[in-house]
């Protein structure tokens, strides 16, 4: 049975990205690991970006009742991701998307309350974010690894 190894990151919808970015940077000491001004997204980490690209993702668009964009859990291997995929299909868990972020392979799905959750495996590749490319988990590990970016 696959398992997650830790909480990886949380995505939050915020009302004012610049205000939130300043708070998490200047008050809590997080570093900006990537930013996309056209989308307004900010990726932040307490660690080196190669160790953990981001632990917090800030996204514009907070509305009443719309706070969490995603909760992401780290896995130890690509085989764990493939096994989670099998388990999700068997249990009819709604899958939103399966994606390579270059620096990770992840499955986005819904918990029983409709919250977006992700399980992901970090690839060890430093790749600018945001980036997303569909992944076929039925492919071999070698095929998946050859087509991450």
Question: Quick summary of this structure?
Answer:
This protein has three helices and nine strands; from the N terminus they run βαββββαββββα. It is of the alpha+beta class and 149 residues long.
Structure description:
- This protein is globular.
- Strand 2 and strand 3 form a beta hairpin.
- A 9-stranded mixed beta sheet has the order 2-3-4-1-5-8-7-6-9, with helices on one face.
- The protein has helices spanning 17-27, 78-90, 141-146; strands at 6-14, 31-36, 41-45, 56-60, 68-74, 95-100, 104-110, 116-122, 133-134.
- The two termini are 28 Å apart.
- It is of the alpha+beta class and 149 residues long.
- The chain has one domain: Roll (2,3-Dihydroxybiphenyl 1,2-Dioxygenase, domain 1).
- It is built from 3 helices and 9 strands.
- Strands of the widest sheet, in order across it, are 2-3-4-1-5-8-7-6-9
Examine the secondary-structure arrangement and name the CATH architecture: Roll
Name the beta content range.
Answer: 35-45%
The arrangement of helices and strands along the chain is EHEEEEHEEEEH
Low-confidence stretches: none
Number of helices: 3
Query: What structural category do the secondary elements indicate?
Result: alpha+beta
Shape: globular
Mean pLDDT over the full residue set: 92
> What about the largest sheet?
9 strands, mixed
Number of strands: 9
CATH topology: 2,3-Dihydroxybiphenyl 1,2-Dioxygenase, domain 1
Name of the CATH class: Alpha Beta
What is the radius of gyration computed over CA atoms, rounded to a whole number of angstroms? 15 Å
Helix content: 10-25%
